[in-house]
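Support reply, case 0932

Customer input (verbatim):
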Amino acid sequence: MTDGRTALFPGTFDPFTNGHLDLTRRAARLFDRVIVAVAPSPAKGTLFSVAERVEMIRAAVRSMRHVEVVEFSDLVVDCARRLGAQVMIRGLRAVSDFEFEFQMALMNRRLSPAVEVVFLMPSQQYTYLNSTLVKEVARLGGRIQGLVPHNVEALLLERLGVRSARSTRPVPGPRTGATRRKRPAGGR
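Our regenerated output:
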């Protein structure tokens, strides 16, 4: 751990995934204080309001000491300066992320040379994971268990008006391959 270092982990987090949670945990092991900063990003057409995302993330990180969640709507470097962050955390899932993140890091360095950017890689099991993909899978009735924290899963399915994938997925019928709905245990 470094001496009194604060790291800012900015993003839209619509929704907060287990990949985001993994990066937050990794950052919390490296820095004394980690601030997850939630941006409105109206151009992205978010599913949840900033306040809802902040509350979702707070519930997901509640057990992590020295992790805070805030919202911001200004330049990320101004947010970092205001909160006393010396470091900005960015996640790199794959080589395809690097070009965009590199450009952003250079622009942020130009805007505020005092804020360093640190790239963290998520655990291998989350390298393919992003919020857009999770929303699409959930919207189409796919199983998202294990992709997002439990509290986020419930809120996401509710917001999309989707019942749990376990109870709605068709299963093959006997011999013909036709599909039928799963019956409740003990039902006819």
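We compared this against your earlier run and they match. Two observations from our side: Helices lie at 18-30, 50-61, 76-83, 95-111, 131-139, 150-160, 165-168. The longest strand covers residues 6-11. Please reopen the case if you see a mismatch on your end.
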